[in-house]
Write a structure and sequence with these properties.
By secondary structure, this protein is an alpha+beta fold. The protein has one domain. Helices cover about 50% and strands about 15% of the residues. It contains three helices and three strands, in the order H-E-H-H-E-E. Strands 1-2-3 form a three-stranded mixed beta sheet. The termini are far apart.
Length: about 70
């Protein structure tokens, strides 16, 4: 599977989400923007190094923190 295109899609979705001033993002926001399977989004967030916009402090799936900006 070529994850690079999915990574790019998630990064673009996060840019659009950051414009809405959401600091704590739920994975459903990414899912709405990309229509990628939740499991794939979770896998990429946990395993890949993404360019996450500076306004986003954390990404969650319910109560589970999938990504958190260091120092937050």
């Amino acid at each position: 599977m070529d994850k690079e295109k999915y990574i790019k899609g998630i990064e673009k979705a996060l840019q659009r989400i950051a414009v809405r001033d959401l600091k704590d993002v739920d994975i459903s926001e990414i899912w709405i923007e990309t229509a990628l399977p939740r499991d794939l989004i979770k896998e990429i967030l946990k395993e890949e190094s993404l360019n996450i916009p500076p306004g986003i402090e954390s990404i969650r799936d319910g109560r589970e923190i999938l990504w958190k900006r260091s120092g937050s």
